[in-house]
Amino acid sequence: MMPGGHLATALALGGVAYATTGSPEAAAGCFAGGFLIDVDHYLDYLVFEKQWRQPSPVSFLRYYFRYRPGKVVLPLHSAEFMTFLFLVILRHPQPFLVGYWVGAMMHLTFDVLVNGDNALKRPVLFYIFAYRAWYRFSADALLDVAVSDAAGQQPIREFFRWKPVEDKK
Description:
Mean pLDDT: 87
Structural class: mainly alpha
Helix content: 55-70%
Shape: globular
Number of domains: 1
Low-confidence stretches: none
Order of helices and strands: HHHHHHHHHH
Number of helices: 10
Distance between the termini: 18 Å
Radius of gyration: 16 Å
Largest sheet: none
């Protein structure tokens, strides 16, 4: 799913969490897990793609919408991290952590459902960190995308699209 879809669903989930629990912490956690989890894409961009000279959000969006990454490390987008966080929550059920976990699970579910049809070779396995590590986080080995020539030309508008790329048919 594109970032705008995650933004909308995270806001909605945060609103529902606040309305049902009355907890601003749970609502903030839902938003963080549902949308801000994508900060690891930006970290990949800076650290593994070595894009320190072009750190602006627009440059980052243009780069990713053209599917140029060589590496997809994404430590927050992993079953291992979610399992670890779940174990922490069992011991310390803080509203923010519970909300983050629920929001991140929603985020990852939408990623599998939407991106799995459009960009990933093995949609469920992609979200296992060890699987990505096995392939040395190689985007070529893990992603299956056909990028149109128009991709990345209007990164702010593309931010709000539902699907990341056109269907491969």
